[in-house]
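Students often ask why inverse folding is considered easier than folding. One informal answer: many sequences map to the same fold, so there is more than one right answer. In these notes we will look at a single instance of the problem. The structure comes first.
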């Protein structure tokens, strides 16, 4: 299989800041790469260099076999980009925005209009097609932005934090759109701060921190490094914990961890929500003391802790609405 994206020894400095310090990665044609990292890791810088918006200081970058600095025009014709911040024209309607982008890509007028209608339909924006984009919600803008990046049917699509700031329902539908594109054969490089998102969409992941790759692999490989998911029980009386451990031990893939002070039992498990159901069945009736229970998946914080021994200090900022703990009952 050929690689649609090849990056070797990529270095980028901004004055005294080394934003990228020798990044290597490849993305096989037709696959999805998740580029993960906390704020300031260098994700957007990678995307900007790969999409010809920024010159690297060192390194080799090829997209669809073309050198991004020497053949920038040809690269641009082959790619689509949805940046971290929506780039729609506020005063144009959704339809006009897409038509304009189509014209910029040198589609004929009729073809640009046809494509605009098609994409509005696909992204559930037909009803808002004739409203100015400034009346759109954040989620609608995001969808319009992605629609715009698809106008010219790019072979390679770059999505920089496609779901940051979206509510859970919009995030789920965005995931479906992206998964559909991937199924259709588009090569995708997406950046994200959420392991769950990369897990859901990406074939492979590269984790960067301070401009360096600190881990790479499939979701399973990364999670194996992190320790996988666990069932967490908090009880009202620590005295019931030993009995629970006995009943639940057969479900554990590693040793259960009991924290008497916190009245908590953490059980490393594999599988989805069904393991939670099975655990409750095994506790059969002895659930009166359970105060809280959840299936906890590793998030990027856990990855960081496991890989670097420190917490990703910049991940959970106050403007990050999704920084809630990842206690979910099988959202996939
Ligand atoms: N134009 C610029 N001038 C100076 N420094 C920059 C510039 N662009 C990025 N940087 C710095 O380079 C580093 C990487 O930034 P980058 O935007 O690539 O991070 P990121 O991983 O996309 O972060 P976020 O999750 O916040 O979007 C940061 O330290 C940032 O401050
Ligand atoms: Mg960024």
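Output (designed amino acids):
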């Amino acid at each position: 299989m050929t690689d649609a994206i090849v990056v070797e020894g990529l270095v980028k400095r901004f004055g005294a800041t080394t934003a990228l310090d020798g990044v290597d990665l490849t993305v096989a044609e037709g696959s999805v790469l998740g580029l993960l990292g906390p704020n300031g890791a260098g994700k957007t810088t990678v995307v900007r260099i790969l999409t010809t918006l920024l010159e690297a200081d060192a390194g080799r970058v090829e997209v669809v076999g073309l050198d991004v600095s020497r053949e920038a025009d040809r690269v641009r014709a082959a790619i689509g980009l949805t940046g971290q911040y929506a780039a729609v024209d506020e005063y144009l309607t959704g339809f006009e925005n897409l038509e304009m982008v189509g014209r910029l890509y040198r589609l004929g007028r009729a073809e640009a209009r046809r494509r605009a209608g098609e994409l509005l339909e696909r992204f559930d924006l037909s009803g808002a097609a004739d409203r100015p984009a400034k009346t759109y919600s954040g989620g609608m803008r995001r969808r319009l932005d992605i629609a715009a990046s698809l106008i010219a049917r790019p072979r390679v699509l770059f999505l920089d934090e496609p779901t940051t700031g979206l509510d859970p329902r919009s995030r789920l539908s965005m995931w479906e759109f992206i998964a559909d594109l991937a199924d259709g054969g588009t090569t995708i490089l997406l950046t994200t701060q959420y392991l769950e998102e990369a897990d859901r969409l990406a074939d492979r992941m590269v984790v960067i921190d301070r401009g360096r790759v600190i881990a790479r692999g499939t979701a399973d490989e990364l999670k194996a490094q992190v320790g996988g998911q666990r069932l967490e029980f908090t009880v009202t009386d620590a005295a019931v914990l030993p009995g629970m451990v006995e009943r639940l031990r057969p479900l554990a893939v590693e040793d259960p961890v009991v924290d008497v002070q916190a009245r908590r039992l953490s059980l490393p498990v594999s599988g989805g929500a069904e393991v939670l159901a099975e655990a409750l069945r095994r506790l059969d009736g002895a659930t009166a003391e359970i105060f809280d229970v959840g299936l906890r998946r590793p998030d990027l914080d856990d990855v960081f802790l496991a890989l670097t021994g420190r917490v990703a200090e910049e991940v959970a900022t106050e403007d990050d609405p999704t920084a809630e703990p990842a206690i979910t009952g099988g959202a996939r």
